[in-house]
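Anyone? Bumping this.
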Amino acid sequence: DIQMTQSPSSLSASLGDRVTITCRASQGIRNDLGWYQQKAGKAPKRLIYGASSLQSGVPSRFSGSGSGTEFTLTITSLQPDDSATYYCLQYSRYPLTFGGGTKVEIK
Amino acid sequence: QEELVDSGGGVVQPGTSLRVSCAASGFRFTSYTFHWVRQAPGKGLEWVAGISYGGTQYYADSVKGRFTISRDNSKSTVSLQMNSLRPDDTAVYFCARAPILVPSGMDVWGHGTTVSVSS
């Protein structure tokens, strides 16, 4: 099975800050990676697919990069609405696997 | 409006069975693979099972042999039959779709249905 190691598990940042979240895959997954945002009590919402493609309707302050085993989600200017937990998902091979999540809080 | 509506959750005793379902609307059902993803209280997301257009099934090791995913292309529904339920199966269960033509992971999710396994 492919393990997805996500870091950090939590972070606290100020409005306007640049935030970076990383996922590392235990083996190469090409660019078969998505990033999801989840708010309390809600279903996950896809932000990024194909490692770097922005989901329609998602603000351009979100971006993704990487390929193979190292991937990054960046929020260029943190906004109040970005307070949430973020997950990566590899869909290259079954079983599909999620990262452990990163809880983003606003200072 | 493209939508997935999850239903069927409830409170059950360990060792019993439950069936959760997902009704799709607003899009071409046969163009998608479907998945169930669960989230235990206070925990992260865990993929549980997936099913292709043709009915090929995939399972997480934690549910293999106990859970069965199925789809009815004529009714645009996906179901998860859960047998021999254990307390650690307690979670919110989300249905999600993933495009077949251009694999890109899950793009639309249901709101979730809560399963609680307790004596």
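Late reply, but here is one note on the structure posted above: Residues 9 and 49 of chain A are 21 Å apart (CA to CA).
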